[in-house]
Specification:
alpha+beta; 25% strand; 37 strands; 9-stranded antiparallel beta sheet
Length: 885
């Protein structure tokens, strides 16, 4: 049975059992502040379990792309070294939201595994929760009793809280779970050691295959448990492990989930995969075929490699694959990008994003490979320098801090540093390296640490967003909670009616104010007549975000009466400019597709009151003509003053039929909001102008590259575009006054000609002066036998020093010249060695040694070298050191 058939059979089975089959959610999470990636099958259903949203159906089944590479669930370091850990994996799942519970879930699992997939019953074991006295939790007797009707009691095992009580995180829905394990060993191995003794002991052929979680409780922030109002089922079966079991393999990598990728790596690298666990070549191949899946799916879902956040994680995974292939497969040129076509062929039927985004994924991976291979080459030169400096000190241990800097700052793999050191019979100061790594972790932890307290519920109410229609409203707080982070203590509040737009879709969240109704002199029925200038009762809304379908506004201090009625008002100046920038991104998107082609798709955006940023797929720099045409097209639409057409709750199928643009990597519901300005139609939840004329004017300020195949436009509109032209006019007037001319181009051209003539004159004078200095300095050499040394401190510019050094090298035999300059307050060292001494003295090595004194670096060839630095006071030490030469 192929992996495609196995996946299809699972979905068909649960469809027959009344489950709605839904597509996998994006692997990258954009609307969940607690997670970067979908790390389990239940992630996309969190809001259902928390009661913030109603599910599409009471029974759902799917296959979900998951990524476990950060935080609590991190399998990255295990990948490649065993047969079953992965970064990206598929989780097959069936879900019940307040419908069936333990009895039916257990029956479905048993029937599918033994009757449909035909796994021998004698190869299966199950675990149940044994209870936990410290939590006052009893043994899961119901699960035990239901399992007894399917499997022999000797195969039902008690499991502890660690293995058999599933929790979403430190807080949230949780409950006992029942795992199903399969024993894939030979009969001979089973006769020697019973399978029951190997459950949850990390045996590669006795593995957990399916977990049935019974959601009964909610874990509060204070650690206590409370019963959920309704009970749910959340199951997850590892697709790769299931394929291993059904295809009779001993490793996930031997299944057809991975073998086509492995075959391609063998073809490209010329290395044969044998499947040996300890073989570094085989480990590298496993790392490559695992990591390419994770990276490809993440990019297809809209997450590009970058230096921060989720993008950094993706870059790290990709670089780990490149590093392994460089070291153990001898791959010195990009090749991972060629695996994308294989991945698309094998998985494109179930995951159409791979088909749609194949070119983008391929180009991004190729560019990242090319860049990192250059980093490795640069790192090899840097590690050689560290090794040479270590040997020059007659030491055998590379400084841990320097190896860490190479890893942290330059991205050079620490393992590669260790291997190179070992080849030179050296070691790395592991303690020093670990100390630096721990410091970095602590810095990162400190910057992101946040303690979140439980919600204080003032009223159970369905909160609503009214910000599309109102920017001020009478409201009250339904719940609040305290949070503590590096910036201090704050409160998050949820309003019964909120006019504040929560950050999302690239648009920043609204700021504004809350005025309590008890404020002296304030009439909530006539808020506009109240002077807020010196009112101490006003509560400032610092930001607004969305979390678990709640609109959460951040304030510094809780009002003295949190249960009062409030007047909420959005900062309308910022809102007006922000929505102008948001609306113009829609017009920009359409114009880019018209000018560059329909391959253009939005790949990210930022929309604030001061400017907009728009990332899109395109594989070359835009020309000035293209940028001008795009700008003209957008401004034409603005001048036409096209009215907004808003479809607030339109079925997604109908929106797509109307030609709405949907973005890959975004999660859409059955009904969506469509924004239309003439022929521009997009699915969007942001706030917008009522007509394009409100935008004013659109001005592109910059076009650049952010990654392979991704371009970025930065632009302004609204008040900022008006300010831009006002400032431009003012600058022209000031320049015109300075030049005493209205023909600025002609005046500047004349100035440039005069400047060029003066520069030539200055250079000539410098050369004349240098000739004079050369004659004077010939008398300042110190002789040692037949060798001559000149060390001088000067305040001359680099060009003049260079001219003198080259002249002296040519005219003074057997000479070494060292010039230390402090021109413009910057230390610089220049070293020259006459040709007849180059075999004995290397200018590059001399300058590197002296540059340490000025906290700098540099280099050159045996005859000439320079170095700059940061420490001007170090010139004297460098001078004394040079004299000792």
């Amino acid at each position: 049975m192929t992996s495609q058939q196995i996946r299809k059979q699972f979905l068909d089975y649960f469809k027959e059992k009344g489950h709605l089959i839904v597509p996998s959610a994006p692997i990258v999470l954009k609307d969940d502040p607690t997670l970067m990636f979908s790390n389990s099958g239940m992630t996309q259903f969190k809001d259902y379990f928390l009661g913030y949203k109603q599910p599409k159906a009471p029974r759902i089944a799917d296959t979900q792309k998951c990524l476990r590479v950060s935080g609590k669930h991190n399998d990255l370091d295990d990948v490649g070294r065993d047969t079953y850990h992965h970064t990206m994996f598929e989780m097959l799942g069936n879900w019940s939201f307040g419908d069936y519970f333990k009895k039916e879930a257990i029956a479905f699992a048993w029937e599918l595994l033994t009757e449909v997939y035909k796994i021998p019953k004698e190869n299966l074991y199950v675990t149940i929760f044994e209870g936990d006295a410290s939590e006052n939790l009893e043994r899961d007797q119901d699960a035990y009793d239901y399992w007894k009707s399917h499997i022999d009691e000797s195969r039902i095992i008690n499991g502890n809280k660690k293995d058999n009580f599933w929790e979403m995180g430190e807080s949230g829905p949780c409950g006992p779970c029942s795992e199903i394990h399969v024993d894939l060993r030979s009969d001979e191995e089973k006769a020697l050691v019973p399978g029951i003794d190997l459950i949850n002991n990390d045996h590669p052929q006795v593995v957990e295959i399916w977990n049935n979680v019974f959601m009964e409780f909610n874990r509060k922030a204070d650690g206590s448990l409370e019963k959920l109002p309704s009970q749910h089922v959340d199951t997850g079966m590892g697709f790769e492990r299931l394929c291993m079991a059904l295809q009779g393999k001993k490793s996930n990598y031997d299944t057809d989930v991975f073998t086509p990728l492995i075959a391609k790596v063998e073809e490209l690298s010329g290395k044969k995969y044998t499947g040996i666990l300890e073989d570094e070549k085989d480990i590298a191949i496993r790392v490559v075929v695992d990591h390419i899946r994770a990276v490809a799916f993440a990019i297809a879902d809209g997450q590009l490699p970058s230096n921060g956040g989720a993008g950094y994680v993706i870059r790290r995974i990709l670089r780990r694959a490149i590093s392994y292939s460089y070291r153990f497969l001898g791959m010195k040129e990009p090749f991972l990008f060629e695996l994308v076509a294989v991945l698309k062929k094998e998985m494109g039927e179930f995951f159409p994003e791979l088909v749609k985004q194949e070119k983008l994924v391929t180009e991004v991976i190729k560019e990242e490979e090319t860049s990192f291979l250059k980093t490795i080459e640069h790192g090899l030169k840097r590690i050689d320098l560290i090794i040479n400096e270590t040997l020059s000190r007659n030491e055998k241990t590379l400084p841990g801090a320097e190896v860490f800097e190479l890893y942290d700052t330059y991205g050079f793999p620490a393992d590669l540093s260790r291997i190179i050191a070992e080849e030179k019979n050296l070691t790395v100061d592991e303690k020093g390296f670990d100390e630096e790594m721990e410091k970095q972790k602590q810095r990162s932890k400190k910057s992101s640490a946040q303690k979140v307290h439980d919600w204080v519920i003032l009223e159970e109410k369905q909160e609503v967003f009214v910000g599309y229609d109102q920017t001020e409203v009478e409201t009250y707080i339904t719940r609040y909670r305290k949070i503590e982070n590096k910036d201090g203590e704050f409160y998050q509040i949820v309003l019964s009616k909120s006019p504040f737009y929560p950050e999302g879709g690239g648009q920043i969240g609204d700021k504004g104010i809350l005025i309590p109704s008890y404020t002296e002199g304030f009439d909530i029925a006539n808020p506009d007549v109240f002077d807020i200038t010196n009112c101490s009762e006003i509560v400032e809304v610092l930001e607004t975000r969305k979390e678990n379908n709640l609109i959460v506004s951040l304030i510094k201090d809780l009002p003295k009466d949190a249960g009062a009625v409030f007047y909420a008002k959005v900062n309308t100046t910022d809102r007006k400019n922000t929505q102008a920038n948001h609306s113009v991104t829609h017009l920009l998107h359409e114009a880019l597709r018209e000018v560059l082609g329909t391959h253009v798709e939005q790949k990210g955006s930022f929309v604030g009151p001061d400017y907009l940023r728009f990332d899109f797929s395109h594989f070359s720099k835009m020309s000035d003509e293209e940028l001008k045409l795009v700008e003209e097209k957008v401004n034409t639409k603005i001048k036409e003053n096209i009215a907004l057409q808003e479809f607030r709750n339109i079925p997604i199928a109908e929106a797509m039929e109307k030609g709405a643009m949907a973005l890959f990597g975004e999660k859409y519901g059955d009904t969506v909001r469509m924004i239309q300005f003439g022929t521009s139609r997009e699915l969007c939840g942001g706030t917008h102008v009522k007509s394009t004329g409100e935008i004013g004017y659109f001005k592109i300020q910059n076009e650049s590259s952010t990654a392979a195949g991704i371009r970025r436009i930065e632009a302004i509109s609204g008040d900022k575009s008006a300010e831009y032209f006002q400032n431009l006019e003012l600058q022209i007037k000031e320049i015109s006054a300075l030049l005493k001319s209205k023909d600025l181009a002609k005046s500047v051209e004349k100035l440039m000609e005069e400047n060029s003539a003066l520069k030539s004159e200055v250079e000539s004078l410098k050369k004349e002066k240098a000739k004079g200095e050369t004659a004077n300095w010939k008398n300042d050499f110190t002789e040692s036998g037949d060798k001559k040394l000149l060390v001088k401190k000067v305040s001359m510019d680099a060009g003049s020093v260079k001219d003198i050094v080259f002249q002296l090298k040519k005219e003074v035999e057997n000479s070494v010249i060292i010039i230390l300059s402090d021109a413009d307050g910057k230390p610089m060292i220049t070293v020259g060695v006459s040709q007849d001494l180059e075999a004995n003295y290397h200018a590059g090595n001399i300058v590197k040694d002296l540059a340490k004194e000025i906290q700098g670096g540099g280099g050159g060839n045996p005859g000439f070298a320079t170095a700059g630095g940061k420490n001007l006071d170090g010139i004297e030490n460098a001078y004394q050191k040079a004299l000792a030469l």
